[in-house]
Specification:
The complex is a heterodimer. Chain A is of the alpha/beta class. Chain B has a 9-stranded mixed sheet with strand order 3-2-4-5-1-6-7-8-9, with helices on both faces. Classes of the chains: A alpha/beta, B alpha/beta.
Chain lengths: ~350, ~240
């Protein structure tokens, strides 16, 4: 099955079918490298513009310097606009609308680097939701296929709102997970990721654990954890809505990998997960006691034959005795011993009555 | 990374944020002293602003002597500015605010005029104490955002120290700082506590989205350190025999 992530990150072809892309990071694993790749890919492919709205992360964390200076990329570095600390703090919402409307008619990708920072600055969940919904509508109604890309840090109250079908019927939702989560599930729950275990079984185990963010955080930051900043990551891709071939599918969920050197890749090609795919065959049997003895335990062929002819005592239990030639059925055969006085004439004579 | 080349020389570069976290059993004071005084010694015109929340200037003066930096001369020539953050922070009010502290730092950095020949380093020690004093987590996180944006605008490098009191479970402020930082120096104790030979361990992580150039050290492969009179020595795990 072709991987979904490269086509999601590529520019315009995907934008036609999936105008909304949600990138979800967590404290345990960030997916900002995917934004970097998205901006990088915009230079190849169909001409379009990327509008990069930086609210929390500096532009250098989101894209390469060469991409930032490209004419296709418009950077709005609003990281210094902090409520209370900026002398003339203005609400970013109106300015975002005006920039999007003023953008050229080519296909446009609007990237907001941190919607949870936006929520914190606006201060109201409903107003943030309203803003994002209007922004998505503006992006959707542009003449050329355009896309809205939002990056969010879980846990956030915005995530359940943005993933509802009410917000956008079609959705590409990419969540970053640390590698430690997969190794933990493989060792503690004995469920390695597909293809080593059945897909349904894996999702049944994976989804509840992944949704508990503190579990992943504990694996990364707790005792025995490696700490943050891992360059390779596991990517959970959920696609809702029609795909490029026009085939309607309900919801498709896959697990793919991201390598710091090679970008999107299969899970099986991630170096750190290599140990999950080799099945270790556990040797159940102990050492054979019949080896290395000073005497011979084997049977000669004649002994084998004689042994095979021995009738087994209970082998025919329950079957009728057709093959037996006994005339008397149910006869009692009695051998008297020395104390018995058997007198055939009067057997009861020795009784003292 | 080999212990001989630790800590890396150009950490942090201008416009970068180095977050140093430590725990009660493994304080990272030595890293702050090393960062500041090595910065001052490296370049002739290098400048440094130290904003101390709960610290004491006498310790800085004493450590400067041990690391052969003329503290009084640096103060006099404005190469080193020591700021008592509590004099500027407005924490006594009903809703404590850090805006006045931010303005004081802004004025100081604007006056420093950092350029490649005279790089400026701003050290804030420490940001957890601001939250402990009653400033809300939202306010401290906004302050951190504003300070980092200010440093990027003035081409200064920024070092923030944060005390971790819940090891293994990042608190809300640390969550925010981890999103902002370019690099994270993680100083943590041995699981068996402090020993005579090894005082703690140190790891180096990157922040999110950073295509960094320094070689990282994970917690499981952390370097160990032992404090000395004028700093610390670093050695790989299990090779303590070389320094003991």
């Amino acid at each position: 099955m072709p991987s979904l992530l490269p086509s999601i990150l590529a520019s315009s072809s995907r934008a036609q079918q999936q105008p909304f892309l949600l990138l979800q990071s967590s404290l345990a694993q960030s997916c900002l490298p995917l934004i970097r790749e998205l901006v990088r890919q915009s230079r190849s492919g169909a001409p379009g513009t990327i509008l990069l709205v930086c609210l929390l992360h500096p532009p250098s964390a989101l894209a390469d310097p060469s991409d930032l200076q490209s004419e296709h990329v418009q950077v709005l570095d609003w990281t210094d606009r902090v409520p209370g600390y900026t002398t003339e703090y203005s609400d970013p919402r109106e300015e975002v609308f005006s920039r999007v409307r003023a953008a050229s008619a080519r296909s446009l990708t609007v990237v907001i680097d941190s919607v949870d920072t936006l929520l914190s600055d606006i201060g109201s969940l409903s107003k943030t939701q309203q803003f994002l919904w209007e922004l998505l509508s503006i992006v959707h109604t542009r003449s050329n296929p355009s896309r809205l890309v939002l990056h969010v840090l879980a846990p956030s109250p915005l995530i359940p709102i943005l993933t509802q079908t009410k917000f956008s019927p079609s959705l590409s939702h990419v969540t970053a997970h640390p590698l430690a989560l997969l190794t933990h599930i493989a060792s503690a729950y004995l469920t390695p990721p597909p293809p080593s275990s059945p897909v349904e079984k894996f999702w049944r185990v994976f989804i509840p654990i992944a949704e508990r963010h503190y579990e992943s955080e504990k694996l990364v930051y707790g005792p025995g954890g490696e700490g943050s900043g891992s360059r390779d990551l596991v990517v959970e891709v959920l696609v809702r809505g029609a795909d490029g071939s026009g085939r309607r599918r309900a919801v498709e969920r896959v697990l793919e990998g991201w390598s710091s050197t090679a970008g999107p890749c299969e899970l099986t090609s991630l170096e750190s997960l290599r140990g999950l795919w080799t099945r270790k065959v556990v040797e159940e049997s102990g050492p054979d006691p019949t080896q290395n003895l000073s005497f011979n335990l084997n049977l000669t062929p004649e002994q084998q034959q004689l042994r095979a002819q021995v009738p087994l005592p209970y082998a025919h239990e329950g079957k009728p005795a057709e093959q037996r030639n006994e005339a008397a059925q149910g006869a009692i055969l009695y051998d008297p011993d020395s104390a018995d006085d058997i007198d055939d004439d009067d057997p009861d004579e020795d009784l003292d009555i | 990374m080999s212990s001989a080349s630790f800590p890396p020389a150009r950490l942090p570069l201008p416009r970068e944020l180095l977050l140093i976290t430590d725990e009660l059993q493994s304080p990272a004071d030595f890293l702050l002293f090393r960062g500041v005084f090595a910065h001052l010694k490296d370049t002739k015109n290098a400048r440094c602003v130290v904003a101390s929340v709960s610290g004491d200037e006498t310790i800085w003066r004493a450590m400067a002597g041990k690391m052969s930096v003329n503290y009084a001369q640096c103060l006099a020539s404005q190469r080193l500015v020591y700021l008592d953050a509590m004099a500027h922070a407005d924490v006594g009010a009903m809703s404590p605010s850090l805006v006045s502290l931010f303005r004081a730092l802004q004025d100081t950095l604007d006056a420093q005029l950092s350029d490649p020949d005279a790089p400026t380093l701003l050290v804030l020690d420490d940001i957890a104490a601001l939250e402990w004093m009653g400033v809300s987590e939202l306010e401290v996180s906004r302050f951190a955002r504003a300070i980092y944006a200010l440093c990027r605008k003035t081409n200064a490098a920024l070092i923030l120290r944060h005390h971790v009191v819940t090891p293994g479970e990042p608190d809300d402020l640390l969550r925010h700082l981890l999103q902002l930082c370019t690099y994270h120096l993680d100083v943590f104790p041995l699981s068996s506590g402090r020993s005579g030979a090894v005082h703690g361990q140190i790891a180096l992580h990157t922040g999110p989205g950073v295509a960094g150039s320094h070689k990282l050290i994970t917690r499981t492969a952390a370097l160990q350190y032992r404090l000395t009179d004028s700093g610390a020595v670093f050695f790989d795990r299990g090779t303590g025999g070389g320094v003991l």
